[in-house]
Amino acid sequence: DWNDDTNTNIHGAELLISTPDGVASEVNPIETRVGRLEMETTSGAIWLDNDGDVTIGGVSADFTGIRAGAGVNLSAFSSIQVDEPIDNDGNTVELDASEDIRVNAAITSGGGQVTLQADRDLFFSDAGSIDNETGSETVHLRADRDLISGGKISMDDGSYVDATDGLIQVS
Questions:
Q1: Is the pLDDT reported for residue 59 higher than 80?
Q2: Which terminus of the chain has a smaller tally of CB atoms within 10 A, N or C?
Q3: Which residues touch 97 (CB under 8 Å, ≥6 apart)?
Q4: pTM of the model
């Protein structure tokens, strides 16, 4: 997986986690191999490394995407597709993919920093957006992070990035 740990904690087609506390930690993220993911925490952060393509959403009608009481930190050794919202309460949202990131829904941070890093491309559909909602934190958009094969950021009409009083860094 992305952090070179050989142990996969959860392997399956879909994963739904709902907990009052956080999921894993920065030094020991939960390691998965799932195709679809939805998560909810009341007060804690989410730390997850996925081996393979992962889509946020489409698991359960009772949940919508990822909702965290603290930060959202998701990496994928492949691509990430955001089909349902990612939202947290004023902390960092970080998505890191070894291939592409496709944003087809809202990503909101409640005032926290937002970072999307892809070794290849970032795509925003007409429904894709980033909004840190309040404050002056920076939104970082990085394509071709590995500096190997080039990368681009593509935004369809209707998509947007709003850093409120912060900066938008594009590279």
A1: yes
A2: C
A3: 75, 76, 78, 79, 80, 117, 118, 119, 120
A4: 0.92
- Average pLDDT for 4-14: 79
pLDDT in tens, 142-158: 998 777 777 899 999 99
Rounded to an integer, what distance in angstroms lies between the CA atom of residue 90 and that of residue 92? 7
Strands (E), the chain: 10-19, 30-41, 46-51, 54-56, 66-68, 72-77, 80-82, 86-88, 93-97, 101-103, 106-108, 114-118, 122-124, 129-131, 139-142, 153-155, 160-162, 168-170
For residue 156, the Cα-to-chain-centroid distance in whole angstroms is 19
- β-pair type (10-19, 46-51): unpaired
Contacts of 12 (CB under 8 A, 6+ apart): 33, 34
Report yes or no: 96 and 79 within 8 Å, Cβ to Cβ: no
